[in-house]
Structure formats: structure tokens, C-alpha cells
Amino acid sequence: MKPSTGPSATPHHGASASSSPLLSALQACMRTPEVREALGLLIPEALHLWAGDSALKQKVTRPVARHIESGFRQPGPEEDERQAGLIDRIPELVDGVLASLVTATQALETLGPEEKRKALEALVASWDPARSGLLLTRLARALNEVHATHPTALTAAIAPAVRAWVASTDFGVLREAADTMGPEVQALAEDINATLWQYPAKLVLSLSFLPDLVNLAAICLNATLRRFNQASPDLVADIALSLVRSIDGAMLGTVLNELGEVIRKVHTGSALIGEPGRPRFSEDMRQLAGAAAARLDAETYWQARVALAEDKATLAESLHDALADNPAFAAGGLKTYAARRNPGRRVTRQGLEAMDDLPDDTLGDALDTGLSDLDLQELGDIANLVTALVNRVLDLKPELVPSLVQQLADTLDVDALATSAEGLAGASATTLRPVLRALLPDLLTLLCDALAPEDDPFEDKMAAARQRLRALLVGPEDTP
Question: What pLDDT does 9 receive?
Fold first, then answer.
């Protein structure tokens, strides 16, 4: 039986020992030869530590320690048998220690602040890191040795308890409880918030811990990274790459396969359980979005989007102002521009090279399958809708587009544009000449074919365009 952790764990004066589960457990532990043997070693050692260098204390404690040691010593079993018995008693000992700690903490709560401080300091001072490290090391070593012959020993020990818990737990009841927890959680959240808002100072103080947590995390991260940066590059690289090498690539690939199969099954199952042409996933998402949109305040939502855009612009402006005050930083961005863009282009080139290395039949089949699945009807519908919207805008607000174009033209520095165009044309005249000679023949041929007379609804406009082009090329005086 587990010792009680409530107030009844502390026996009242005059109560029998059997009335307290904790005392019963402690008495059971005390009766075991192993515990008596351990106490026979620990108590004299504690008396020796208490006596310290005091001759008077040593004179008093020495005979007491001998008496206790002889009183607790148990003749009989050999050392290995005593250790085996002690191992068998470990669960009982651990349970008794935990119960004792619960009782001790209950007593700790009754002390004043100064007494609590002294007790906590004494507790920390009494903690032996060497022994705790030794305990952990021995447990890990024992586990390693067990795993050498029984790789799933812990599972074998834990699994029965898990199976018993699963078998004795009614998950249907848990599911029903979870379904009914919504109002409970909401009421609790509202009550907590109502209570906190009754004490605004406490609310502010509780929220003030968030920056402290961020600062503490930053301090710890900085200390860790600083130690890494103090090491040599080869050591840091070896540590980082050793982590990469420790990843099980085969298992990662298996996980990705299973995840991909789950996604595929969800997609296929959605089509199977939905109406023809309407997968269940899209219908559920439509209902979810509709329910959210019905409660969404459009004006507030778009005002929030505007506020976020302005805050983003403010952040960018602040960054630019900081860069303006640090020319070396801004110049570094320009100097490394190509170095930051080249890796991406290199990856793109390698991908194209991988496609170019495919056999002709494989590449042809892949392109035929991939491109034939393009929904060009959707692309055409998009173009039609964009054109229709532009036409509606021109009909509803005929002055809007010319006004926007005029505003843009007024802001442009025409002289600067002319100078830039002249400079670019002059700088690239020789280098681009082979490119232009390679492209222009086909482009001009295509243009001439489009300008040729043809019986279609656009012929009148095309004829006027040809006439203006002829007048431009040969001059108005030569035009028939």
C-alpha cells in the first residue's frame, strides 16, 4: 500500500504506529537486515561528520557510534546475499524515501522564511554531486549490460503496466469527458482572467516574466555559442557534422514514405467518401472557412492587415535607418550580393543538368505526362477574368487608368531615363549584337506575318497600323 501523502500522513500524538501507513512502511523497512546494515554504516558516519574537529564531540560520539554500529550489524548472510536482498527491497525503500520526503516538505511549510532558507541551504549543501553522478553512471552501465543481451528489457518491464493501464481505462469515457471539457475550460479561462484582472499589478508582473524567460534563453544560448566559437573550426565542424552523421537516413526515408502514403490515402479517401466531383476534404474546409468568415469582422480584419503592413514598413525603415548609420554594413550587403545569389543559381543549373542527363525516352515520357496534365483551361479562364475586370474598370472609371498612368509619368525623370537608355545601349551595342542578330530575324518574321492582311475582325485596325508603319518607314511624301 502506498503511504498517504495527505495530512493524515503525519501521526497524531498518542496514535499507534500501525495507524500511520508511513510509520508502518518505515518500520517494515527498519526490520529488514539490509536497511539495518545500511543504517549501521550511515548513522556512525553522520555522527562523525557532526563531531568534526571538536575533541569534545568526538569523545561523546565515538562510543555511541560503536554501539550503534554493533547494534545494527547483522551476522549471517554473506555480502552478495545481503546485496541481493537489498536489491529486492529497492522498490520498498524508494517508496519509503518518497513518503518521508513528502512528510518533510509538509513540515518545511510550517517554518518561517529564515528557517526555510536555512533548511533549503542545508539541503543543497548536503547534495553530493559525485554520488548522484556515480548513481546515474552505475544505472546506465547496468542498462547497457542488460541491453547487450536483452535490447528491450525496459519495454518488457514497462509494457505490462502500460497494457494494464490501457486495459483498465475506458477510452470512450475519456473521449466523452474531452467532448464535455469545452465549457469547463472556457469557464476556467474566464474565471482565471477575471481574477487576474482584479489585480492588474499581478497580471502585469506575471506577463513581465515572458521577457525574462527570453533573456535567460538568450543568455544560455549566447554562452553555449560563445564556447563553440572559442574552439577551432575543424572541431566545431566535426561536432556539427557528427550530429548529421548520427541521423538514420534510411529511417528518415522510411518515415517520409509512410507520411507520403498517409497523405495519399487521405486525398484518395476524401474523394471516395465525398460527393462525386466534390472531395470531402474540400467540403469540410469550405464549411470551416464559412463558419470562420461568418464570425469574422471584415472591417477589423482588414484594418489589422493595414496595421501589420504599416508596422512591417516601420520595421524596415528602422532597419534602413540603422544601416544608413553603419555604411560598412550596407556596403557589405552589396559586396556579398553575388556570393549570396550564386549558390541558388548553381542548384538550379544542377537540376537542369540532371534533367538533361535523362535518356531521351525517359525525358520525353516525363515531359509528355507532366505537361499534358497542365490545366490550360484554368489559365485561359484566369486571363479572361482579368481582361473582363480591366474592361469593367475602364467602363466604370474611364478616367482612373489614364490618371494613374499620368501620375506615374509625372514622377519619372525623363532625362535620367534617356541618359540611362543611351548609356546601356552604347555599353551593350557590341556585346548584344550577335544576340540581336540571332533573335530579330525570327521575331521580325513573326511580326510581319501578324501584320499581313487577313480576313478577320481585326483587319481594319491592322490595315490602319500597316498604313502608319509605311508612313513611318518611307515618309509621308512617298506614301501613295
Answer: 40
